[in-house]
Amino acid sequence: MPDLLVDALARLGLTLPAVSTPAGAYTPTVITGDLLFVAGQVSRTDEVSYLGQLGAELSLEQGQEAARLCALHVLAHVAAAVAGDLGRVRRCVRLGGFVNAVPGFRDHAQVMNGASELMLAVFGERGRHVRTSVGAGSLPRGAAVEVEAVFEIAP
After folding, report:
1. CB-count exposure of residue 11 (10 Å: 0-12, 13-18, 19+)
2. Hey, is 41 helix, strand or coil?
3. Which pairing describes strands 89-100 and 130-136: parallel, antiparallel, or unpaired?
4. Is the pTM value of this prediction over 0.70?
5. Are 137 and 37 contacting, i.e. CB atoms less than 8 angstroms apart?
6. Which of 34, 114, 121, 132 has a CA that sits 20 to 30 A from residue 66's CA?
7. What is the chain's pLDDT, residue by residue, as a tens digit (155 residues)?
């Protein structure tokens, strides 16, 4: 079976980043039954970082790019958890998004569209998911956005 995720990312001009190591006493992924949980991934790599608050240092468009970067990190962890067998991914079930924003910021859902649209672009209808978008006064390492996810996978 062709690697659909890598093919889809290539069509979008994207590649998976290296998987990040946990910043605390937790594991980045857990598989239980047919569900794969991916811990929150922040908008930061060695090459690109989206740090600061939406509505202060960062624009809505930068927030969407930050959410997309988080989603790429999520996908890298998915690939690692299934040992590269991305044919096991049946669907994206849920995304949870945390947006580092100033009080009064109201476009959290628009920011999270950056992550949601990537899942749809990569998986098609299998990427359609439920979602939560929450504002936060700060996030780990000064990140602008953090995204966690749940996927259904085949055994």
Report:
1. exposed
2. strand
3. parallel
4. yes
5. no
6. 34
7. 346 677 888 888 988 899 988 888 999 999 999 999 999 999 987 788 999 999 999 999 999 999 999 999 999 999 999 988 878 999 999 999 999 999 999 999 999 999 999 999 999 999 999 999 999 999 999 999 999 999 999 98
